[in-house]
Amino acid sequence: MNTIWMGCLATSICTSLGALPALLFNRVTHQGRDILLAFTAGIMVAASTYGLIPSALKLSNLWILTIGTLLGTAILTLLELLIPHQDLEHSPQNAVRDQTSSLMFLSAMALHNLPEGLSVGVSYGSSNQDLGTIVALSIGLQNIPEGFLTALFLITHGLRRRTALLLATLTGVLELAACWLGLEFAGNFTAIVPYGLAFAAGAMLFVVYKELIPESHGDGNERASTFSFIFGLLTMIALTHLLK
């Protein structure tokens, strides 16, 4: 159990580690931000298609995988409609610098972190002992650029650097809470584990296709972002392969 909580905690801490370098910047170029977003998207796609989906199939069947994946996509769509939030903008330096936009952006990060934390917790709760480590590694790795972008967005919107670091860290804490929820849910209802794995995969793929890929291709950096996406995908596959 200590190993499990260490893995869950590590994914959360990676958000703070990623936020630290942002304290040295007042802004980042469009190309740099798009490359980070695309790299994150590649990692999340690999985590879903190379880890969560195959594991869900091993524990169940195609019908359960389909139901869980569609449910994850539907729930994320519903949350996006119900919870006020602000997406990453193509021109953050021209955005209105007020507390409302910052709070809305943090709401968007919360939407992203919930399925990530759930996927880690559910993976640790499955019968596949290696899956939890693989998913925790993939989520932790993509949390680094995500933490950087979160803190940088807040700084460019007028928040103090320490405040931006604290708020970015809190998004990681929310992910830790979701991890605990996923772990408890999977532990008490073993039959639900494949649904949970498929749900997490669907939610993460929703975030990638709805948010990360469009944002990374919005400033004329499509080619660089494409290569960054592929590099992130291969990086996660390589790390997963080495852990097996």
Describe, in plain words, how this protein is organized in 3D:
By secondary structure, the chain is mainly α. The protein contains eight helices and no strands. It has helices spanning about 1-20, 30-60, 60-80, 100-125, 130-155, 160-190, 195-215, 220-244. Helix 2 (about 30-60) packs antiparallel against helix 7, helix 2 packs parallel to helix 8 and helix 4 (about 100-125) packs antiparallel against helix 5 (about 130-155). Keywords: Cell membrane, Membrane, Transmembrane, Transmembrane helix, Zinc.
From the structure above, extract its key features.
membrane, 244 residues, zinc ion transmembrane transporter activity, single chain, 8 helices, transmembrane, mainly alpha
Question: Rough shape?
Answer: globular
Radius of gyration: 17 Å
- Through-space gap between termini: 20 Å
Q: Describe the biggest sheet?
A: none
Given the structure, what is the number of helices?
8
Low-confidence stretches: 90-98
Oligomer: single chain
Beta percentage is under 5%
Would you tell me the overall average pLDDT?
A: 79
Order of helices and strands: HHHHHHHH
**Structural class label:** mainly alpha
Query: What is the number of strand segments?
Result: 0
What share of residues is helical? over 70%
Family: Belongs to the ZIP transporter (TC 2.A.5) family.
GO molecular function, one term: zinc ion transmembrane transporter activity
Protein name: ZIP family metal transporter
Keywords: Cell membrane, Membrane, Transmembrane, Transmembrane helix, Zinc
